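Re: the 193-residue chain
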Amino acid sequence: MSSFPVYLLRHTQVDAPGICYGHHDVPLAATFAADAATVRANLLPLLPADGLVPLLFSSPATRCRLLAEALQIGPATPDERLREMHFGTWENRPWNDLPPAEINPWMADYENSAPPGGETFGQLHDRAADFLASLEVLTAPAVVVTHGGTVRALLCHCLGIPLRNAFQVNIDFGSLTTLRRQHGRWDVLGVNG
């Protein structure tokens, strides 16, 4: 049983208004330096003061890697399972330009329907849950820099919430969600901290 927490950090704000992005790299907002400093200031008091170096993982997306670097707690291990949902041919297109014949079936059942050439939210959930399973035995706290969709999928996994309800949970940019494995299950200790 691990007594160390897992801190899920959503990347900071991006400059991609109205754009569908998941795997696509988008520019960070002009406020990145200040946003990253705030995330770091919120995280550091939660980490051990005894010199125990936390484990640091990151989605390979640039917006996550840059935040992981800005935390200044060590090198990040990139993990593909932490990526945002892949939106296929919708990537880097305005949401308003997506054909209703494609988007409406997806909106009705994003758990099982995929954008053309993309993945379902269920597939995102499965790879995120696989990543979390790899953290069942920790030797130090884990800091995981990832995406809003990935955090939502993990919350559904930990709390037994149906995936169709995942987007009823708001995950703010730069926010912290805390998990801890106890008694053979993952408990959610805080969301949007």
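Residues 47 and 114 are 38 Å apart (CA to CA).
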